[in-house]
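Lab notebook page, bench 4
Experiment: in silico fold of construct C2
Operator: M.H.
Input chain length: 290 residues
Purpose: comparison with the prior construct
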Amino acid sequence: MVARPGSSGEVLASLPGTIYMMADEEKILWLSADRFPMHRRCLQVSLLPPPQFLWPGQRFFVQNSTLFVGDSCLIDLCSLKDWIPPTILLGQAKRLAEVRHRCDQFFGFIQCLGPLEGLGRLIPLISKMAEGKKISFTPPDFAPARFLLPILEIGKACLGRDMAEILEKGKELIGLGPGLTPSGDDFLGGLLFSTCILKEIYPEVFRWDHNRISDFTALARSQTNPISHAFLNDFSIGQGPAHLHELMNFLIQGGDFEKAISTVVPFLRFGHSSGGDVLAGLMTGMLMVF
C-alpha cells in the first residue's frame, strides 16, 4: 500500500471529490469521496477539503496512522480496509454464446439511455459491428476522424481476435484528447480491461502473449501523463474500478441484469466523459466474443 507509514510524495491534481497524488517512488494513488467508485489505488474517505485548499506540488506524508496532505487535510488511516474487487467464480463462466446474448442485452439498454458523453456515443456503432452491419466511416460531429477511424479499425480487429492489429491501431489513440485522462487513453483502458479478463477466463480461446500488452503500456508511458498511464496500466492487467468489475462479472457469469445496470449508470457520470469513453472501449473489446 502506498499510504504506508513513512510514505511521502506530492499532490498532482486536486479536483472536486478527488485528490491525485504521486509517492516519491512514482506510484499513483488518490483520495476520493465515498460517492466515487472504488479502485485498488483509491483511499476512499467521507470528506475532503475543497479543491482550492490543495494544489499541485503540495507535499503529503504518512506518520504513524495519519496521512497529512498540505496544511489542511488529515486522514486517519486506522479504519481503512483493503478493497478486493468482485471476481468471477471459478467454474461459473458461461459459454461464449451466452456472453454474446448478455452483450446484446447491454447494448440495447445503453442505447435506451440516449446519447452518452464523449466516445460513449459510439456505442451504437459498436453494437452494429456486433450485429455484422456495415458501418459508415463518415465521422459524426462528436467523434472526429482522428478517433472514429482508429476505433472502427480496432473494432474490426476485435471481431478477428487479432491483438497485434488492435495494439497497432491503438497507438493512434494514446494521449489523444483533452482532460486529466484523455479520451483515447480511457477508451484503450476499457478495451484492455475487457480483453484481459476474457483471456483470463477463456485462455483456450484467447491466446495472445501478454508481453505484447506490456510493451504497449510501456510505450504509452512516454506519450501520456502519469495519472492516465497508471489507469491504463491497471486496466491492462484486469484491475479497474468496482463498477466495471461488476459489469464484466455479469457479462461472463450472468446474474441480475437490473443490478448490473444499476452499477454502471453511476459510472457513466465519472469525469467529464471518462465513464462513456471507458465503456465504449470495454464494449469494443467484447466484440471478441462475436
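Observations: The chain has a mean pLDDT of 90. The radius of gyration is 19 Å.
Next step: discuss at group meeting.
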